[in-house]
């Protein structure tokens, strides 16, 4: 799982059929302190997240196929699987 922030939406009129009907979000991975950490990713939204939301990303093919079911026979790798309400770090 990757903590990330939604920074935009992605619109594509021509795409692989596996992406049809799915909302695509541009997500910036974050470290536990909330600072940008790594390259941005395009993710399929499964939880109705929006710009500015902190989210959990699942970024591996097998888990994605399990969540999407048999219709995931395509290039979908990264999913938004949760909206994060708060992050607490123990000291």
Characterization of this structure:
With 91 residues, this protein is mainly beta. It has a single domain, classed as Beta Barrel (OB fold (Dihydrolipoamide Acetyltransferase, E2P)), CATH 2.40.50. Helix content is 9%, strand content 35%. The chain has 1 helix and 5 strands; from the N terminus they run E-E-E-E-H-E. The protein has one helix spanning 61-68; strands at 2-10, 24-29, 41-45, 54-59, 78-83. Strands 1-2-3-5-4 form a 5-stranded mixed beta barrel. The two termini are 22 Å apart.
CATH topology (level 3) name: OB fold (Dihydrolipoamide Acetyltransferase, E2P)
Terminal Cα span: 22 Å
How much of the sequence lies in strands comes to 35-45%
CATH superfamily: EutN/Ccml
Helix content class: under 10%
Kindly name the structural category. Answer: mainly beta
Number of structurally distinct domains:
1
Helix and strand run:
EEEEHE
Low-confidence stretches: none
Shape: globular
Count of DSSP strands: 5
Question: How would a crystallographer describe the biggest sheet?
Answer: 5 strands, mixed, barrel
In what order do the strands lie side by side in the largest sheet? 1-2-3-5-4
Assigned CATH architecture: Beta Barrel
CATH class: Mainly Beta
Q: Report the radius of gyration as a whole number of Å.
A: 13 Å
